Amino acid sequence: xxxxxxxxQITALVGPENVSGEPACLGEFAGDTxxxxxxxxxxxxxxxxxxxxxxxxxxxxxxxxxxxxxxxxGPHFHGDTVPSVAETVIVDLRQMKSILRIDRRNRIVVIxxxxxxxxxxxxxxxxxxxxxxxxxxxxxxSVIASLLERQPTTIPRLNYSLPEPLRVCGVVWGTGEYSFxxxxxxxxxxxxxxxxxxxxxxNQQGPLATDLMRLLSGAQGTMGIVVWASIKCELLPxxxxxxxxxxxxxxxxxxxxxxxxxxRLGEEVLVLNRCQLEAALGTRANGTPAGGxxxxxxxxxxxxxxxxxxxxVLVQEHELQTACREFxxxxxxxxDGVSNAQLEAxxxxxxxxxxxKFARKGSCQDIFFLTTLDKVPLFVQTVESVAxxxxxxxxxxxxYIQAQHQGVSQHVEFSFPFDPxxxxxxxxxxxxxxxxxEALISAGAYFSRPYGIWADMAFSRDATASRVLRIVKQxxxxxxxxxxxxxxx
Length: 489
What we know:
Layout: H1 3-14, E1 19-20, H2 23-28, E2 43-45, H3 50-63, E3 67-70, E4 89-92, E5 99-103, E6 108-111, H4 117-125, E7 129-130, H5 143-148, E8 166-173, E9 178-180, H6 191-196, H7 213-216, E10 224-232, E11 234-235, E12 239-247, H8 251-262, E13 269-273, H9 274-281, E14 296-304, H10 309-326, E15 331-332, H11 340-348, E16 363-371, H12 376-390, E17 398-404, E18 409-418, H13 423-442, H14 453-459, H15 463-476
Parallel strand pairs: 2-4, 3-4
Antiparallel strand pairs: 1-2, 5-6, 6-10, 7-11, 8-9, 8-10, 12-14, 12-15, 13-14, 13-17, 16-18, 17-18
Helix pairs in contact: 1-3, 12-13, 13-14
């Protein structure tokens, strides 16, 4: 079927105002900041309702048209929103941006995929609530997309599983069928009817122990499209403090971090090296480092909510002081040249309009994976060694370490800033990205979110997982219309 015929059909399904074939619009989705090959989509379609979306997916099955769902504003980073085959249609979900329900009693918010952090955070704050966020998220980042991608959140003690705080969702599968996951799957196929019956979409398991949401987590849009999701909220703190523990070596902080994670001390707990902390604070935007930034630092947020908030913060401060003394470290309020308010903003704010990692050189390539804390120094040495061989300056490498799942695992992220207008720098980073990724996975790094070239690296080492994924894909998307080519599917 030619493009004009497809344009006529899709326009009849959703209306001409919700379909675009304009070159500027198509160009927005033809590439991203990653190293993925740029391919221009054939059309962009913008559903407004679940019914629209079901019609689009059913049409894609009938015509064999590939679909790529996108719900965040740019920039995009990992290649998963870039078409991998010709004649792809982008399903732009940014029109579906309703906050369907804020349930303070059950601490649950239900939202559509177009709702961003910049929109949700103030809406929840007005109700005395908040959600656990990634570190300095973009204001235009879709909350549901962020959680489906398993971007690490910054409060380890509230991270009961890697998809937290995502709980229950409604999904249009690759077949065009519509269903609910978790406890919502055992009720009527209407949120309003479930609310009237007292269901709050809290429990991600159900019916029985089934957890279909796991099929969507980290799937890069290859299984279906989430049309709403419930997200666990927390009470907004009435008292907050930020504390910092600095050290000349990462190894000096390992045992301390193990201790505070085991005791569930603090709210936000994260480790940054000098380059990454300077970028987060904005001190390297003009290329001039701040002299007071230590080589390594742990940022710790303390908070108290409804009951005895001041006492809770004081008790945690006392325990942190005890842990610092035991490991020969100092608990500080600020850094030389950096105020406590600036450190606090790192933990609670959105990224500036220009993404914070781009401020120094204009672009950035990341490598991230899961591991245990004791192995992180070895991975840092591995990356520094590969960077030296590739001609990339070690002082430009940013490192971010985020405890996940109550400290059971650690998200480790290496950032390589570069000037996208300098071909030489682009080639160095391209070579570094490939070589470092291969060296890390060979050393035991677990790429739980296998974007791009990581898919081949990960699934070639796990034939069973690859086979099971293909079986699941055949069930929920037999015509393979959902983001084909990702995850080797």
